[in-house]
Amino acid sequence: MANIPTFLSRVFKTNSSQKKVSTNLQKISRKLNYRFKDESILFQALKHRSYLTESGEERIHSNERLELLGDAVLGLLVTEFLYRRFPYKDEGTLTSFKSILVSRRCLSQFAKEFGLGEHLLINEAEEKSGGRKRSSILADAVEAIIGAVYLDGGLEVARDFVENSILVHTDRLLSEGRMQNYKSILLEYCQSSNLDGPTYIVEEEYGPDHDKIFIVSAQVDGRKNGSGQGHSKKIAEQRAAKAALIQLNII
């Protein structure tokens, strides 16, 4: 008889937890503007691996498998979208565009815009360390949700979801992405086009140590394609990369 209160407390705790999960799934479904036929798939998409330390499940039940699937689906849909949207852009340019749209920065930004973090299932330690706002966790969760939508509704439903939630902002995201890191875009262009480089060379530096100016050139395939200057080598390299992208007709 002494164990009855403990048993009842566990029952009520379980029921309360189930209600919270159900409410959580309903809220995020409304935010995503998609109603899952099988909510268990959405439930798994929200499970960060840290949550399993509390639920006692194996790691295979986290959202990592769905993240892998969602990454592939997202890559296909974004590539197809860009192929149709920019019929006169070459492979290197489309590759650079794709890298921006599927980047951790863009996916986590999307997650933050509709408050995905508050719906994630993570353990207390991860939450205290800021896990609900961590870009890597948010971006992975977005990919997992895309994988879940694909499994639940098929490719056409996933296409609608990706286009209406992410690709509708293509122009803004590409503009922000270019400003974010011209060096990354130039590197991806060189890799996709089998070109050597880019290589950054400090051609000149002048001024006092506390206010030095660096002039840097960006070379692709052994040829100088642009130069830039700034108060640090990093800034000068970014500006040189931008100049090279313009000269190569990438942006």
Explain the overall architecture.
The chain has 251 residues and is mainly alpha-helical. It folds into two domains: 27-179, Ribonuclease iii, N-terminal Endonuclease Domain, Chain A (Orthogonal Bundle), CATH 1.10.1520.10; 182-247, Double Stranded RNA Binding Domain, CATH 3.30.160.20. It is 62% helix and 10% strand. It has helices at 4-32, 39-45, 52-55, 64-85, 91-101, 104-113, 124-128, 135-153, 155-165, 170-180, 182-192, 233-247; strands at residues 199-206, 213-220, 223-230. A hairpin with a 2-residue loop joins strand 2 and strand 3. Helix 4 (64-85) packs across helix 9 (155-165) and helix 8 runs antiparallel to helix 9. The termini are far apart.
Number of domains: 2
Q: Count of helical segments?
A: 12
Care to count the β-strands? 3
Question: What is the name of the CATH superfamily of the largest domain?
Answer: Ribonuclease III domain
**Quick one: overall form?**
elongated
Helix fraction by DSSP (H/I, runs of at least 4): 55-70%
CATH architecture of the largest domain: Orthogonal Bundle
User: What gyration radius follows from the Cα positions, in whole Å?
Assistant: 23 Å
